[in-house]
Design brief:
122 residues; elongated
């Protein structure tokens, strides 16, 4: 196992970014239902791209040299699902739920990654 190259800050950043992404995904529909409109129609989607970029960087760094395959697969699968849901979010309303689940699963896999690395001998 190659844990000596892992920086736990990548997982912490991933947890923060994915949590903020989840809040963003949950707040958007609620704000629209409450009657708030956004001044720039594409402005809200820019946040999606920002959160995805930070999440992608965190997943890439967290999975470098990682010895636990299922955590690595979970991180990358969650990221791919999040990316797909961002691409079609404007066209398919139910995709918001998929985005929420993908962001939540990123948080879970980053936490599992941190816990695993703390219990593994280096």
């Amino acid at each position: 196992m190659h844990h000596h190259h892992h920086n736990p800050k990548s997982d912490i950043l991933g947890i923060i970014s994915s949590s903020l992404c989840l809040v963003h995904c949950l707040a958007g529909p609620v704000l629209v239902l409450l009657g708030y409109s956004f001044t720039e129609p594409g402005g809200w989607h820019l946040w999606d791209i920002l959160f995805f970029g930070v999440s992608a960087w965190a997943v890439w760094n967290a999975s470098k040299g990682h010895g636990t395959r299922w955590i690595k697969v979970g991180l990358w699968s969650s990221l791919v699902v999040l990316f797909g849901s961002i691409l079609v979010a404007e066209h398919v309303a139910i995709v918001n739920i998929v985005s929420w689940l993908a962001a939540l699963s990123l948080v879970v896999f980053h936490v599992l990654n941190l816990r695993h690395l703390r219990t593994c001998p280096v």
